[in-house]
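Help: read this over?
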Amino acid sequence: MPTTEVVTVQRRRKYHWPEAQLNFWLLIIWVAAGLSLGVFANFITIQQQMNLGIPWLFPYMVTISALAIIFLIIFMVLIMQRQLLPGIVMVFSFILFVLWLAGLIETAIEFLGPNGGVNGNCNLYVLGQSFTGVSIDTLAYLEQKSICQSWQAAFAFEVVGCVFFIWMIVMASQVNRDQYE
């Protein structure tokens, strides 16, 4: 009785990621996630020290930033193993984009709000002042200025984060179509 031998050949598809763009994207998202994590964790500490309630935005952004950092760690492990799949990148980038966008919208409301937004209060009460010398007033001014600048940085990097997550979705779809060979 003749025997038939079945041979299966597995072929792994290789994806070619644009190295310079990928590294630049990683750098900016590391900065955005780290800055957001640090700024909003600091805001939580300030609120607790002042015995004030903590707005939902602060722990939300700490959580989203931590998720982004976990995503970046997994991302880098997959890059080192040369197993970074565009589909996975697109899905996680989209999820993080939506979560980041929700944080950006609330930050924009708090920062640029029409009635007593943080930016308006900073411009009115802090940035228009100037204290110098060794005094408690100078120290208070510097702390208030630091808080105002932290809000500005957080808002700016949330915008940057949203744009860069969209860019990663586009780049991953182009990699999936072999446009970077």
User: Anything to note?
Assistant: The mean pLDDT is 91. The two ends are 49 Å apart (CA to CA). DSSP finds five helices and no strands in the chain.
